[in-house]
């Protein structure tokens, strides 16, 4: 550990300008390495085996309030304060985590998601019809008009979001994932977001519906389900489900479309039946993790790592480097950095692992396969409108997508 501490921390690039390069640099520094996360120090874990073990380790907590000595006094000026300070399942530990997760998880179970398929297809069809009106030869931004709209409309349906609340959520959730904001901009966005969440709760209290927002409000107001919720937990759970269910899935759809348009041989293999849409979605999740790095976890005690990999001291922060782990040669050999949906083993950690593993993984996969299948059926000759090297990344190390995805529907 002396050596690990002596090496200067690698400063994570807030602009996310070179995901693949930064992942390679992180891996080159060993299975775990010191990083500077917008001014706060953490251990980035890039080795897939070690990362999986730590994600299963009960000595590691996501609760900054209880287990990060830096919080809140030193992190008040930190742009990611919202990520670690929220009171919901994302940051809860132990029994608290089980209580908060139980209120939400059943709504996203496999059977429920299968029943949602017709609704997802209907929304997708409507979106395709609206972009179909573009004139031949005119570029269409598929991120803005398609990838970004489907997930928010689906989560909006499940949560009972009134249509006129959706633009506010899109804007503020985008900013939650933007790592180039100043502290003041991030704080202003957080304030904005809570105003929008409060308005949602007020609206749904007055007009309950058959949706998850209403059920969470009932859990809060009647103290009935699983021991109830505080008002803060209610707002932060709504914030979590709306934001986790949105930005991430937008990136998955964006990256999968981009991957297919730049690897036409795999699109051809789908058409012959040699590959499935599931293969494409799974390999995209592995190759372009929608959430490349996940803040934060904390050691609740000194943790001595196996094979003399070092010690993580009590109170140290840990950031899961999912993207670097997914493309680690130890997991996928020399072709780890290549998009190859035909590889038999597409193992990845993009949805996390262990008790905090993504609640919405089934929904995300269903949305993405539906979006791809219906898009390429409607526009079989779809192409990028600019060269792939001109696509610009989102300004973020927490969100891996493109600012825009200009395509020609009928070149
Ligand atoms: C947690 C990824 C879609 C809801 C997570 C985590 C990741 C993740 C990395 C955190 C794991 C950790 O603690 O390290 C993704 C990706 C998605 C996606 C890549 C899309 C491609 C969704 C959707 C929902 C959702 C559609 C809808 C409800 C959640 C929730 C948690 C979570 C509630 C917190 C779980 C917990 O802490 O117990 N997701 N997610 N996600 N995700 Fe997703």
UniProtKB/TrEMBL annotation:
Please name the PANTHER family in this protein's record. CYTOCHROME P450 YJIB-RELATED (PTHR46696:SF1), P450, PUTATIVE (EUROFUNG)-RELATED (PTHR46696)
- Domain of life of the source: Bacteria
Q: Where is the region Disordered?
A: 1-22
Q: Which UniProt keywords apply?
A: Heme, Iron, Metal-binding, Monooxygenase, Oxidoreductase
The family line of this record is: Belongs to the cytochrome P450 family.
Q: What is this protein called?
A: Cytochrome P450
Give a single Pfam family match: p450
């Amino acid at each position: 550990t002396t050596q690990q501490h002596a090496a200067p921390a690698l400063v994570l690039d807030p602009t996310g300008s070179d995901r693949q390069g930064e992942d390679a640099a992180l891996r080159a520094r060993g299975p775990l390495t010191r990083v500077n996360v917008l001014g706060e120090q953490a251990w980035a874990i890039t080795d897939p085996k070690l990362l999986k073990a730590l994600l299963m380790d009960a000595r590691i907590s996501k609760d900054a309030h209880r287990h990060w000595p830096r919080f809140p006094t030193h992190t008040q000026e930190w742009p990611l304060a919202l990520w670690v300070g929220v009171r919901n399942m994302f940051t809860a530990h132990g029994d608290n985590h089980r209580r908060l997760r139980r209120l939400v998880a059943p709504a996203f179970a496999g059977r429920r998601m299968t029943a949602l398929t017709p609704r997802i297809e209907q929304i997708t069809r409507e979106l395709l019809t609206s972009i179909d009106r573009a004139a031949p030869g005119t570029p269409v931004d598929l991120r803005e008009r398609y990838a970004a709209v489907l997930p928010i409309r689906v989560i909006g349906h499940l949560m009972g979001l009134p249509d006129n609340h959706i633009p506010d959520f899109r804007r503020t959730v985008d900013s939650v994932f933007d790592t180039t904001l100043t502290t003041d901009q991030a704080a202003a966005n957080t304030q904005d977001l809570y105003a929008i969440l409060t308005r949602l709760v007020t609206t749904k209290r007055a007009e309950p519906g058959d949706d998850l927002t209403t059920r969470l409000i009932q859990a809060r107001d009647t103290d009935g389900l699983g021991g109830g919720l505080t008002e803060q937990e209610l707002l932060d759970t709504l914030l979590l489900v709306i934001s986790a269910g949105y930005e991430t899935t937008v990136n998955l759809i964006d990256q999968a479309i981009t991957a297919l348009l730049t690897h036409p041989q795999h699109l051809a293999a789908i058409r012959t039946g040699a590959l499935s849409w599931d293969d494409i979605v799974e390999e995209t999740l592995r190759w372009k993790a929608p959430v490349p790095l996940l803040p934060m976890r904390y050691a609740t005690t000194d943790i001595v790592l196996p094979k003399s990999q070092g010690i993580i001291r009590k109170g140290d922060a840990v950031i899961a480097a999912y993207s670097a782990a997914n493309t680690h040669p130890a997991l996928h050999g020399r072709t780890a950095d290549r998009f190859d949906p035909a590889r038999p083993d597409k193992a990845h950690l993009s949805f996390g692992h262990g008790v905090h593993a993504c609640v919405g993984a089934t929904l995300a996969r269903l949305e993405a396969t539906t979006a791809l299948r219906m898009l390429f059926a409607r526009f079989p000759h779809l192409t990028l409108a600019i060269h792939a090297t001109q696509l610009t990344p989102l300004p973020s190390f927490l969100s891996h997508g493109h600012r825009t995805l200009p395509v020609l529907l009928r070149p």
